[in-house]
User: What shape does this take?
Amino acid sequence: MKKSIISALLMCSFAGVVLAAGPGSKGADAERAKYIAQISKNFGSQIEAMYKMPKGEWLEQMLETLSDADLANLKNAAEAKTLGEMTNRLFGNISQKSLGQRNRLTGQSLNPRGDLVFTPLPPCRIVDTRVRGGNLLPNETRGFLAWSSTGFQGQGGAAINCGIPAGAAALAMNVVADTKAKVGYLSVFPTGTIRTGSSVNFIGVPVANELNVRLCDSGCETQFSVYASAGTRMVVDVYGYYMEPAAKPLECTTVKDVTADNGVYAASCPAGYTPTSASCASLNLDGPAFGTKPIKDATGTIIGYQCRPNPTAWNSLAGCTLFIFNCKGLGGGLDNTALETTCCRVPGR
Assistant: This one.
């Protein structure tokens, strides 16, 4: 009934009839129709560009949701500057009322194999069952795409890829259950896995929740699935994605130090580099093999190295005295050493 009243008032508004808000529910309905008409007028071109459908068709599919929306939210949405801002304002107070606000899927580690790298995105819609696909039915499980090179129109989302790369490990998303069901929940989980617990609980009004949702690793036609315990419409907006860090070889350089302080060479590296290994060598072409001994401070941190002649190479050489960093050989010359330190850094740091 309410939808029919709003629809009739909208027709008056589009025909140029001024809608005056009066007392009681009829006055509220007139206000609601005014704000809905304003949304259609202000964001019609953006709606058509994003959803690839006439704004009238979008309005028809969204009319029940707009008719039931909180009036203050609807007014704020009509005054927004962008389509994304309008959507956020339309459901502006829902996230704060949501049961289990900012819930993270229990029992599902985002990445059991290591750290993930998060990349934020402008909010972008990838699912809207009010536009495509229809209501999730009671006890239904439905799969959805998390990335697509051609857009998400087939599941009611934007006609762009939203900046989500193929192979993303997880998505940061806002999930809205738009329903009049008295009680129920949605469970969002990686396709091909066993669902665990609820992600969004609803109690007869639209409810939203922010989630980090791990995605199917590979071999899945869809990347995440949603189970509904009761019938509901659903909207999913993405605002970031997680990727496993790409393995890159270290950038390394070698630094030679020929000056020892009391027999200890400092492991000197350029700014931003860290010493990863060190070795000693003779400066004479005919010099002996040398071993490297790390020198540590009281905390166990390596502060430098000593170079010592390798006893195996020198045992048979007469006249060798095992000084810290030089030794007289058979030829009578001084065999000086140098420390070669390998210094590395992570690329880009």
